[in-house]
Amino acid sequence: MRAPVDDTDTSQDDGEEPERVTPAEKRAALAQLAAIRAQTDRKIILVIHIQLGYHILRFFLPEGDAAAAAKVVWVHSFSVGLDAYRLAEIEDRVRDILITNGRHSQSMALAEYVFYSIFYFNRLTWRQQQQQAARAWEPYDIEPLTGKRMVIFGYGDIGRAAAKMAAAFGVTVVGVRRRLPPPEEQQPDVAVVLITDAAAVAAALQSADFVVNTLPHTTDTDGYFHRDRFAQMKRTALYVNVGRGATQVDDDIAAVLQQGVIRGASLDVFGQEPLPTTSALYDVPPERLLMNPHAAARSADQIYALCGRITAIAEAAAAGKDLSSFSVNRVQWY
Which residues lie in Acidic residues bias regions (predicted)? Predict the structure, then answer.
């Protein structure tokens, strides 16, 4: 049976980038998998992560071996973004396989990071730290959130979580996405702008106090946030990325921050990870830039949320329910 297709728009929940795998690690993992594949005639469910997921998929779905590929009935990715697996290259081999991801499992943690970032700048946390270290007592003004405007690019699950928090602080939210959300995902206080409407997107950027990037990485969003895009924002605007590093141009961010084009930025993801020590971002002062080593959702409880997602899908399948709401977008692969 052909796996159901979900063509709804979703945000990038965890924004994870590929980690480095040594040749020795790859050989050891594939040797273990070879033993597993040789010893079972049962149907196979693959739960993969970015580090070895690309190699695991091609091992269990070898080109020209339909019998081996037929054993795999479900592939689940802990990460939301699937671009590292390059599924489009093996689309004919995954056509009849249910493919799901970790959507919803880390959205709240990432939304928390968005507001942590905003408070870092609006409450001048960097100045607090400097004064404490210097044993100085110099009161200063902070910037309240009430009445501010947040524009969320890739407005989906993370965006909805952030919008709920924003409402509590009196922050107005505009969501930018590929298509209008389905009724069950609409939030009455959130205005939605289509990313294909250049004039509306420009107007949203010009009005934003906080620009939040949760975009998935696709051919359309590659390097989306570049120098010209930042130039459309207020000089007092803050930019926060908890999506994918490849949707921004790191060198442009360093330049616009040093030049004061925008007030500040908080980055959990980068175009290249680990971030090279030669990156110009390291030269930006802390009052302009907050950097996080791709760990905005990382916690001791993270594995429970990820496994909870798998359990929910398995229970729905066992009950014979429609799985289309769990299946990834097979056009954009997220």
Answer: 1-17
